[in-house]
From TrEMBL:
Residues 1-92 form the IspG TIM-barrel domain. This is 4-hydroxy-3-methylbut-2-en-1-yl diphosphate synthase. It holds the Pfam family GcpE. Residues 107-193 form the IspG C-terminal domain. GO terms for molecular function: 4 iron, 4 sulfur cluster binding; 4-hydroxy-3-methylbut-2-en-1-yl diphosphate synthase activity (ferredoxin); metal ion binding. It comes from the Bacteria. Keywords: 4Fe-4S, Iron, Iron-sulfur, Isoprene biosynthesis, Metal-binding, Oxidoreductase. It comes from Streptomyces viridochromogenes. Its cofactor is [4Fe-4S] cluster.
Amino acid sequence: SALWEASLFEEHDFRDIKISVKHNDPVVMIEAYTQLAAQCDYPLHLGVTEAGPAFQGTIKSAVAFGALLSQGIGDTIRVSLSAPPAEEVKVGLQILESLNLKQRRLEIVSCPSCGRAQVDVYKLADEVTAGLEGMEVPLRVAVMGCVVNGPGEAREADLGVASGNGKGQIFVKGEVIKTVPESKIVETLIEEAMKIAEQMEQDEQDGAASGAPTVTGKPEVTVS
């Protein structure tokens, strides 16, 4: 029916339209958009309708949008949650960043906690996330709860901590810069993150002043 309705506009030589075939079932929605993309060149607006409460709706939206956007299907997206609009926007932006369709901002990498964890990883990750909320630079921070996997993950990040025995090794760009008491881990990570962010912003300004091109991400997909 979507193509039939589009044909009504085409009869009047009007083609400045966008098509949406939203559905509340991600599987049905994916199939509908896949078929539609194969039969027309109109821009497509993706959406999972009545997705549900925040957790359930986020999962549904991530599955559906990820399957389609990774195949190049979709031009705009709309996340529908039984949650405040600001939360819908956050989810949409995170989905785009996860697919590298939008320049990544802050990314927290943290372990799920296991028998080797010697620190409350859940609390630590939450406190670091809250302390860095609003940071716009593409910064990857690793919060790890042991000295087994911790150092490896921390070295892969811009900034990280490997915790254990009541203290934390702080890594910056893969190098250990200091060891701090467990009580100082969050404070230290936030301080170091701010330093790195300031340097990244300064480097970007210097690049713009010299005429060097800057990366701004892919603009093909937007959140509406």
